[in-house]
Amino acid sequence: MNTTTLVLMPIKRSYIPFEEITSTARPFIEANTLQSSLQEIKAEHIIPVFKDNEPVISHSDFIETVMSVANDVFPLQHILSPNIRLSHPIQGRVPSAKNKLSRDLLDHEKTLHYERMAFVIEIPSVTEAIGGNQVSLTIGGVKSYNLDNLSLKKGTGEVFKVFIGFQNKVCTNLCVWSDGYKADLKVRSIEELRNAIYCLFNSYNIDHHIKSMKTLTNCNISEQQFVQLIGRCKLYQYLPPNMKANVPFLSFGDTQISAICRDYYRDKSFCRNDDGSINLWKVYNLFTEANKSSYIDTFLDRSVNAFQFIEGIKNAVRHNQANWFLQ
Questions:
Q1: pTM
Q2: CA 302 to chain centre
Q3: Which InterPro entries match (predicted)?
Q4: Which distant-in-sequence residues (6+ apart) come within 8 Å of 54 by Cβ?
């Protein structure tokens, strides 16, 4: 039996905890987001508070906690600086400027924070080749203040999403599966957050995830099967509830499915073969590429769903398991 050998390159970096090179210079998510930096968030963004005026665990607190855990769990690896995307700006002004027109506000009179934030941190010294693509270990998370009830006292807990998985270097697509994802993680302190991240990172099975992705390269579907799959994906959104309950869950909407159809013909790295056939590694990457148009709130959940969905298609093709999307 073939075994997966990951490339883990020990890097001595006692003189600097994180490389100045930013993880994935290209956007890993595009919809309604803008690029930021940890320094900018810490220096320029205000921090929301709960009803008792206690501060939330800020975006920068969250990022730095993940960075700290990464430094402990992967002490000899090459870790890049976080790539951060923000959305839903909340603007304000200082009391002394309350009567000014918006156009007359000076920079120091404006306040700003962003309700939603997503970030990734790449560990490029942990790599593997899949289907001719290089993938590297990547960690990160999502924080949305709208999930926290700020009208209550701080002790009620705050919600985070954390992941560990891989990123395809060809296209910056994230490869996340359920065993490397903690959705709706609710904590009351940074220490609780740190412990939960430790548990996730230490329990994640890198080798098993890689092997699962590699099997997708050896499973092909015909053009007719792909057309059947896409047609069913379009129909899925309109199924009656009683029918949908018996069908594998799909979180991708019409916008993403249309992008998959387009890239089936046009994507330079993951388009169909000359005879119309396509392997499931490419189909998976068509889904994760389309996921970049998702909002921050749904981005990681759809990333996990993409893997679960394609795994179901693989089992249907290889083991003749029933799957509504290929019937």
A1: 0.89
A2: 8
A3: DUF3871 (IPR024353)
A4: 153, 154
